[in-house]
Amino acid sequence: METAFGSQPSVGRVTIADVARAAGVSIPTVSKVINNRDGVAAATMLRVQQVVDELGYETSLVARSLRSSRTGVVGILVPEFEPFSTELLRGISRAASGTGYELLAYAGLVTGADQPGWERRSLSRLSGTLIDGAIVVTPTTALSSSSIPVVAIDPHTGPEGHATVDADNEGGARSAVEHLLALGHTRIAHVHGRADLASAQLREAGYRQALRDAGITVDERLVRAGGYQEDQSAEVARTLLAEPDRPTAVFAANDSSAVGVLRAAAELGLRVPEDLSVVGFDDVPQASMTTPPLTTVAQPLTELGGRAVAMLLTMLRGEPTSAHVRLATTLRVRQSTAVVPTDTRR
Confidence band (pLDDT; 50, 70, 90) for 260? Predict the structure, then answer.
């Protein structure tokens, strides 16, 4: 393939020698240009840069880090690519635009298996030679001993030991249950998340506090473990909704769990919201596309990602930053909640 400066390699990675040959200069001259060093005439520098752009030449991250101790890359570590992390990535990408940093998204737990410590293994693979700092989504352990700057989003253990960003889980849960109480529901079930996660614990605490504030004793038979998983939540909802004294409303700890509840209700012939009101948490894109559209507590997912980027860039500049940022949640009322039927009021 011909270029304005000669032949272009047809296959394989473009090397610095390819650039030198196409531009008609020496390899040391190309090296000076791509590393912004002096000693190259302006016309030569322009010609080399044109060849670099045309051939798509890029230095390796490892070589770049060995030369400057920086790669210019920020790692985004997630357990797996699912709706929650995907929405965070949107905010991270938007906030990183124009900063001079590139992003490397890395899924450290694609099997979905429960493997605490996945983020430590991932950081050890990437730190130093591939990334300058990292944003870690829902890490299972504290990362204060990391060799590079790290910001955690919604860590399992809560805001401990390192820079973190999360949302008001407890306050959001209270608003969800208060919404159901205002509609006349008093028999409200809770399908909670994983017991080892701070977010799930806080959402359950908000559920319990809202009922207590309304003078309602929590019926422990209405509190079931959904594990933040759609299938598990559907299974426990089938049992819960088949009871003679079933709840008239369910607050699910996340939208995936709420979708499982909607599935179970449909299988049992219950209409939502006429027979059962359902509220989720997160407001992932799927929430507005369910049948009916799901009332849910919206986490500001793109803002969470953006704030994490801002904190990490501050740390990379060697400047002090907040140890913890907590953002407000918002109740999004859609069509999955309604006034409790008169004949079921208790």
Answer: very high
Residue 284, token pair as written in the block: 């992932």
| Alpha-carbon distance values, 245 to 177, 218, 284 (Å) | 19, 15, 31
The encoded tokens of residue 10 equal 């047809």
Q: How many residues does the chain have?
A: 346
User: Exposed, middle or buried by CB within 10 Å (0-12, 13-18, 19+), for 306?
Assistant: buried
The single-letter code of the amino acid at 225 is: A
Q: What is the pLDDT of residue 145?
A: 67
| Residue whose tokens read 């650039």 | 19
Enter the tokens of residue 201.
């614990």
End-to-end CA separation in angstroms for the chain: 78
- Look at residues 175, 184, 173, 147 and name the one whose alpha carbon lies nearest to residue 162: 147
Coil/strand/helix, residue 221:
helix
Query: How big is the CA angle at 327 (ends 324 and 331), to the nearest 5 degrees?
Result: 155
pTM listed for this prediction: 0.75
